[in-house]
């Protein structure tokens, strides 16, 4: 029979935790615990995304680490074969990564080494990349620099605006890559070293100019700007850029490149129209 792995998943997003635990079980492995960060203040998330006793997958222990240094002793209690990480906000110490017998593996939503860092979705659209990437890789002491195990991609669509709308497509692609990554781990395959050529950093937005919408820019550039801010999930201090519409400065929450109907506002851009779907006062 194929080897069955005892696995702890480290995750802060409930739907992603369900996908990881469910896929592991389908593959014949034993997810024994899911570990999340203890939240004391910080950015708010929609209730259905927050990992709680109500939203967490059933049949596994639910652990909350007070800080990154609490992760190692919590993992040691489980005699783990593997740790799988996805959607987790902290840089995990090497001592914790070394606890599982076969090491620790991370899911990173980009085609590494491109877009290493905390907000790769946002930089994917800010840079007008043609695809959403996904990488499973070994974890090391740095962020997103470990050896590669499996990679894949799907096209970025113009209507990939809200994360809840397009995340299921990316998640399905990622879970489809996980068997390949696990096969390599179980075979003691060290993975492929990441090339330094093409490496970029997907850090928090700090460009003051990128906060303001310039309607003389092409419509696609503005559309990317608005959805890029949405995909920072508030981690860069703002959740949307500002623009002037009909003489009033507003926060531009959502745009579309084709007329969605309803109350959307048509705005002329440098190369044609864009439709502003949602705004709020500054």
Detail the topology: elements first, then pairings.
Layout lengths: L5 E5 L3 H13 L3 E8 L23 E5 L5 H6 L5 E5 L7 H4 L6 E5 L11 H7 L4 E8 L9 E8 L7 H24 L32 H12 L11 E4 L2 E9 L8 E4 L4 E9 L1
Parallel strand pairs: 1-2, 1-4, 2-3, 4-5
Antiparallel strand pairs: 5-6, 6-7, 8-9, 9-11, 10-11
Give descriptors for this structure.
282 residues; elongated; Rossmann fold; 2 domains; Methionyl-tRNA Fmet Formyltransferase, Chain A, domain 2; single chain; alpha/beta; 6 helices
Tell me about this structure.
This protein is of the alpha/beta class and 282 residues long. It folds into two domains: 181 residues, Formyl transferase, N-terminal domain (Rossmann fold); 74 residues, Formyl transferase, C-terminal domain (Methionyl-tRNA Fmet Formyltransferase, Chain A, domain 2). It is 23% helix and 25% strand. The protein has a seven-stranded mixed beta sheet. A four-stranded antiparallel beta sheet has the order 8-9-11-10. Strand 1, helix 1 and strand 2 form a beta-alpha-beta unit. Helix 4 runs antiparallel to helix 6. The mean pLDDT is 95.
Low-confidence stretches: none
Mean pLDDT score? 95
Largest sheet: 7 strands, mixed
Question: Number of helical runs?
Answer: 6
Structural class: alpha/beta
Order the strands across the largest sheet as they lie in space.
3-2-1-4-5-6-7
CATH architecture of the largest domain: 3-Layer(aba) Sandwich
Q: CATH homologous superfamily of the largest domain?
A: Formyl transferase, N-terminal domain
Relative helix content: 10-25%
Shape: elongated
């Amino acid at each position: 029979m194929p080897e069955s792995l005892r696995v702890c998943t480290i995750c802060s997003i409930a739907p992603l935790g369900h996908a990881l635990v469910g896929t592991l079980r389908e593959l014949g492995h034993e997810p024994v615990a899911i570990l999340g960060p203890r939240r004391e203040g910080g950015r708010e998330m929609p209730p259905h995304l927050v990992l709680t006793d109500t939203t967490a997958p059933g049949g596994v222990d639910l652990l909350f680490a007070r800080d990154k240094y609490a992760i190692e002793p919590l993992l040691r209690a489980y005699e783990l074969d593997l740790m799988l990480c996805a959607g987790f906000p902290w840089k995990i110490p090497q001592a914790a990564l070394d606890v599982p017998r076969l090491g620790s593996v991370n899911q990173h939503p980009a085609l590494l080494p491109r877009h290493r860092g905390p907000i790769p979705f946002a930089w994917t659209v800010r840079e007008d990349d043609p695809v959403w990437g996904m990488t499973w890789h070994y974890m090391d002491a740095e962020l997103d620099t470990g050896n590669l195990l499996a990679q894949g991609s799907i096209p970025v669509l113009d209507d990939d605006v809200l994360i809840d709308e397009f995340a299921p497509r990316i998640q399905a692609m990622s879970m489809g890559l996980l068997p390949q990554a696990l096969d390599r781990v179980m075979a003691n395959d060290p993975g492929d070293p990441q090339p330094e050529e093409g490496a970029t950093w997907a850090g928090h937005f700090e460009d003051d100019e990128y906060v303001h919408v310039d309607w003389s820019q092409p419509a696609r550039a503005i559309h990317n700007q608005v959805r890029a801010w949405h995909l920072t999930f508030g981690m860069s201090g703002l959740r949307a850029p500002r623009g002037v519409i009909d003489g009033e400065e507003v926060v531009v929450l959502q745009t579309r490149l084709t007329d969605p109907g309803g109350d959307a506002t048509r705005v002329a851009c440098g190369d044609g129209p864009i439709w502003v779907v949602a705004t709020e006062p500054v």
